[in-house]
Amino acid sequence: MAELIYSMLVSLDGYAAAAEGDLGRGAEDEEVHTFIGDLFRPVRTYLYGRRMYETMLFWETAHTLPDAPPHILEFARDWQAAEKVVYSTTLESVSSARTRIERSFDPDAVRRLKAGSETDLTIDGPTLAAQAVRAGLVDEYQLFTTSTAVGGGLRFFPDGVRLELDLVETRAFDTGLVYTRYRTR
After folding, report:
1. Pairing state of beta strands 153-155 and 15-18?
2. For the chain, how long is the longest CA-to-CA vector?
3. What is the DSSP letter of 120?
4. pLDDT tens-digit series, residues 82-132
């Protein structure tokens, strides 16, 4: 059975989306981006909320950028080859291949998706991921923590949920970004 991975860039104070501005410096570095590409290469299904999907749409055409470096081209190819499921009540159509819209998040449907998949899945976007966390569907948490405190926004972990996690990996990058990977107990 496949595992569901929740992975996002996170501010030092725990926000996956800042109330104002961005989450800070770190993910734009080639070393970090190559690491992320290598980490997600085996993933063949992405579960997105509408806003995260709209952010990730960049990768549908990133391969057409003049002078795009190899790590950008490789990530774009991997993203384009993956299945994407967008959970949205407002999105009328999708702009990428291998993409479908689901109007509501159904934990049982995600359980079936995990059970029927030979490769791991990711869930991205703090609002959508909160539903999966509350339903006990997330097997692994991957945080890319910046060195910026943003003071508000949408938290990586939803309020009102207690989780017992085991730290399985850490890595610090020269940019100040710190990767931590946790598994649910």
Report:
1. antiparallel
2. 46
3. -
4. 999 999 999 999 999 999 999 999 999 999 999 999 999 999 999 999 999
The residues facing 166 across adjacent strands are 183
Q: Give the CATH fold of the 4-184 domain.
A: Dihydrofolate Reductase, subunit A (3.40.430)
**Share above pLDDT 90 across residues of the chain, in percent, rounded to a whole number:** 95
Asked if 140 contacts 184 with a C-beta cutoff of 8 angstroms, the reply is yes
Residues 69 and 74: their CA atoms lie apart, in Å, by 9
Which single residue is written with the structure tokens 């405190």? 149
What tokens appear for 65 in the block? 């950028």
Contact 149, 164 (CB under 8 A): no
| Cα–Cα distance list, 55 to 30, 50, 95 (Å) | 19, 9, 12
Gap between the Cα atoms of 140 and 22, Å rounded: 24
Q: Which residue has the tokens 């995990």?
A: 114
